[in-house]
Amino acid sequence: MKRMKTVDCDYFVVGSGMAGLMSALHLASYGKVIVATKAKLADCNTNFAQGGICCVMDGGDTFDKHARDTMIAGAWLGKSPVVHEICEHAPEGIHDLIDCGVKFAKKADGSWDLTREGGHSARRIFHAGDITGEKCEAAMIRRLKKNGIEYRENTIVIDLVTTRKLGMPGANRCLGAYVMDKESGEIYAIRSPNTILATGGCGKVYLYTCNPDTASGDGIALAWRAGARIENMEFMQFHPTCLFHPQARRFLISEAVRGEGAELVDKRGRKFMHKYDPRGSLAPRDIVARSIDSEMKRTGDDCMYLDIRKKGRKYLTERFPNIYAKCLEFGIDMAKDLIPVVPAAHYTCGGIQASTDGRTSIEGLSAVGECASTGLHGANRLASNSLMEALVCARLTAARLAAHPEAKVAVEIPNWKIGNAVPPDEAVLVAHMWDEIRRLMWDYVGIVRTNKRLARAAHRLKTLRREIRDYYFRYLVTPDTLELRNLAVCAELIVKCAQKRRESRGLHYTLDYPRQSKTAKQTVIEGYRG
Ligand SMILES: Cc1cc2nc3c(=O)[nH]c(=O)nc-3n(C[C@H](O)[C@H](O)[C@H](O)COP(=O)(O)OP(=O)(O)OC[C@H]3O[C@@H](n4cnc5c(N)ncnc54)[C@H](O)[C@@H]3O)c2cc1C
Questions:
Q1: H or E segment to which residue 100 belongs
Q2: Spatial contact of 234 and 406, defined as CB atoms under 8 Å apart
Q3: Is pLDDT of 118 > 90?
Q4: Does one domain contain both 484 and 511?
Q5: pLDDT tens-digit profile of 314-335?
Q6: Is 143 inside any structural domain?
C-alpha cells in the first residue's frame, strides 16, 4: 500500500490568530515551524477584536489593581498566581506587537491613548482605533511572511496522533496530527515533537454568536479526544447586544450606545429592563444579556430592540459613525428605527487545561489563547484580557519549548484509514444536525440554565453524537463533518461542566442553584480514554 505523505517540523502550530502567529514568530529562530490554518490566515476571532488589549504600562495604575479587577470579574474563580503572572508579563506582549509594526493610538503629547472598559478601575487598554484586532493580525501576517515562516492555509487538522492511540506504552505523547488540504481533499500527516493548539473558542456552538465561522471549538475537541483534560467549559460569555439581521452576522452594537442613553425595548417599544434591575438599561453586561434572553423566551420573539432615536441623526452620526453606517447598510436608520438585537455567544472562558506556558496534560501538546483554560478568566472574562492572554502565553510557551529542544519524532504515522467510507450523498443531514445543536444549546444551555433544560440537552446530544459518529465513519470526511463532530463534543463538554456546577457563579447562572457557593472550585473533565 502507498505510504501516506508525512511532513516533519520542530514546531507545529495550529491556528493563525494572535496565539498561533505569536507562537510561530517566537519559535521561528529555534527550528522549523509550520503553521496550519483551516481558512485564510486572517480568518479568525483576532481579526474581529474591536476594543483593545489590556496592559499596565506606567502611571498611577498597578499590576495588582489589574489583577484584582480580573479576579473580581471572574467571580474569584480565577487562579490568583496565574492572574498576576499574566498581568505582569503584558508589557512584553505589547512590545512584541509594536516590534511587528502595530501602531497603538497615542495622544497629542506622544503618550499612549489608553481607554477604559467595564470592570476596569483604570485606563489601561491599548487600542488601534476600533479595529485593534485587524491591525494586529495584519502586522503579524506581514512579519510571518517576511520571516519566511511556512504556513498552510485551507488546511484543517482532523485529529491528533498520540502514542496512546497508536497503542504505544508509557505516558501519552502527541506526535503530530492528520490534516486535510481543503482544496485538494488530500489527507496527510504533519509530524512534530511539539504541537501547539491555538485554535480559538467555540462560539459557533450557539445559534447566535459574534464569532466567525472558524470558531467551532476544533482544538478543544481534538485535545479532549486525544485524552487531554478540559476545564470550566460552562463559562461562555455572551455579549448582550449583537445586531439581529440575517446578513449582519457578528456585528456588535457597542455598550457605549446604552451608555449614551439607548433604552432596551420590546417590539412595541415598551421598556422592560426596570423589571430586572433598578439600573434599567444601564445594568451590567451579564444582567442585560440575561434580561433580554428572558424576555425573548417569555414572548417567543426572535429579538429585542435598542431605542436611541431621541438623540437625533446629527448626534448619532458624530458619536457612532461606524455603527450608524453599518446599521444603515442593513436598512436600519438609528435616528428613525429601533435596532434589533440579540445576546450572542462571544468568548469561551474555559477550554484545554493549560499552564501559562502552554503545558497540557499530554506531553508534546501545548495550548495557547482562547482554546486554553489557564485560570486567568475564572467564571467571567474581564474586557480586553483575552488578547493579552494570547500574547503573553504565546511568549511563555515559546520560551519553554525553546529551552527544552526535543528530538524529531521517529515513529512512523500509520496511513489515514478510510475503511468502507463512501462519498457523502446527503449533506442535508450534516446541515440539519449542525442547526439542531446550535438551536438546542441556545434554548437549553444558554444564558439562564435549569437542571431540566440541561438534562434535555444532554439526552439529545448523546443521541446526536451517535448519529454523527455513524455518519463520520460511513462517509468520507469533509470539513463540514469534521467541524460538526467537534461542535458536538464542545456542546457535550459545556453541558457536562454546567451539570457539575451546583451554584451560580459568573457566567453560569442556574435557576436551580441561584446562589454562589463560599468556595470556588474549577470544573475539570478528564480526556477521552476510549
Ligand atoms: C467581535 C469580537 C470582538 C472582540 N474584541 C476583543 C477585544 O477588544 N479585546 C480582546 O482582548 N478580545 C476581544 N475578543 C476576543 C478575542 O478576539 C479572542 O479571544 C482572541 O482573538 C483569540 O485568539 P486566538 O488566537 O486564541 O484564536 P483565533 O483568533 O480565533 O484563531 C484561531 C485560529 O485557529 C484556526 N483553526 C481552528 N480550528 C482549526 C483546525 N481544525 N485546523 C486548522 N486551523 C484551525 C482558525 O482558522 C483560526 O486561524 C473579541 C472577539 C470577538 C469575536
A1: helix 80-100
A2: no
A3: no
A4: yes
A5: 999 988 888 899 999 999 999 9
A6: yes
Q: Render pLDDT for 159-201 as a digit per residue (tens, 0 to 9).
A: 999 999 999 999 999 999 999 999 999 999 999 999 999 999 9
Asked if 146 contacts 22 with a C-beta cutoff of 8 angstroms, the reply is no
pLDDT averaged over every residue in the chain:
94
Examine the residue annotation and report whether 285 is marked as an active-site residue of this protein: yes
Distance between CA atoms of residues 234 and 26, nearest Å: 32
| CATH number for the domain that contains residue 325 | 3.90.700.10
pTM recorded for the entire structure: 0.95
Please, where are the H alpha helices in 347-478? 385-403, 427-444, 451-474
* 323 Cα: distance to centroid of ligand 1 (angstroms): 22
Instruction: Domain count for the chain, please give it.
Output: 3
Tell me the C-alpha to C-alpha distance, in Å, between residue 432 and each of 71, 214, 481, 484: 40, 19, 12, 10
> In which domain, by residue range, is 308 found?
236-346
Tell whether 278 and 228 lie within a shared domain: no
Same domain, 356 and 342: no
Same domain, 245 and 342: yes
Q: Which of 328, 346, 364 is the last residue of a domain?
A: 346
- For 331: left if phi > 0, alpha if psi spans -120 to 50, otherwise beta; the answer is left
Looking at ligand 1, which residue's alpha carbon is closest to its atom 51? 49
Residue 98 lies in a domain: yes
Distance 450 CA to ligand 1 centre (A): 29
Ligand 1: list residues with CB < 6 Å: 14-20, 36-39, 43-46, 48-53, 132-133, 156-157, 198-200, 210-211, 214-215, 218-219, 250, 252, 347, 369-370, 384-387, 390
Q: Are residues 186 and 170 in the same domain?
A: yes
- Which residue out of 143, 164, 225, 285 is catalytically annotated? 285
- Please indicate, yes or no, whether residues 394 and 379 belong to a single structural domain of this protein: yes
The residue whose CA is least distant from atom 11 of ligand 1 is: 384
Q: Ligand 1 atom closest to Cα of 200?
A: 27
> Kind and range of the H or E element at 92?
helix 80-100
Residue 418 in any domain: the answer is no
| 3-class SS string, 368-392 | CHHHEECCCCCCCCCCCHHHHHHHH
Residue 200 contacts residue 371 (beta carbons within 8 Å): yes
The CATH number assigned to the domain holding 464 equals: 1.20.58.100
